Amino acid sequence: MHIVTIEGVPYDWLKQLQEIHAHVFDGTKLPLEKLESKEGLICLLAVENEKVIGFKLGYTHPDGVFYSWLGGVHETQRGQGIASQLMRRQHEHLQTLGFKKVRTYGRNERKAMLITNLKHGFDIVSTFVDHKGRHKIVFEKNIGIGVLS
C-alpha cells in the first residue's frame, strides 16, 4: 500500500474516490462540484494494487486552520492502521505547507474515528448541533514543528 497526496481535485482518481466515499458513507454521493468548491483542497489516497482503499480530504478553513473534512477506509481493510497512516501523512504534508493547526468534527456514531483523533493528539475544544440536528464534537490539534505525534 502507498499513499498518494494531491493538492486540488484528484481528477485521475475521481471515480475511485467517489466509490470509496459511497462505501464508507452509506451510499452518499461526493459531487465533483463540491470538491471543486473547496479552497486549498488536499486529498490523500491509500492505494493498493492501483485501487483506492482509503482516503482523507481536507481544505483551508476561512480562519486559516486546516479542516480535515472527510475520510475513511474500505471495511475489508479496516483494523490495519490505514486511517492512522493517512492522518500522519496529512499532518506531515500540512507542516510543510506552514499550517500550525488542524481541526476536524466527529460524531458519537463514529466512535472509531473519535478514538483515532484522540490517539493522535487531538483535543476536544467544543461541541455543536449542525443544521441536520446532529451533535458534533470539534477536535483540534497543533501541528507546529516539534509537536507532531
Automatic annotation (TrEMBL):
* Matching InterPro entries: Acyl_CoA_acyltransferase (IPR016181), GNAT_dom (IPR000182)
Q: What keyword terms does UniProt attach to this protein?
A: Acyltransferase, Transferase
Domain N-acetyltransferase per the UniProt entry, residue ranges: 4-144
Record's SUPFAM superfamilies? Answer: Acyl-CoA N-acyltransferases (Nat)
Task: Write down the top EC class of this protein.
Answer: transferase
Q: Which GO terms describe its molecular function?
A: acyltransferase activity
Q: Which PROSITE patterns match?
A: GNAT
Enzyme Commission number: 2.3.-.-
Write the protein's name: GNAT family N-acetyltransferase
Please name the source species: Lysinibacillus xylanilyticus
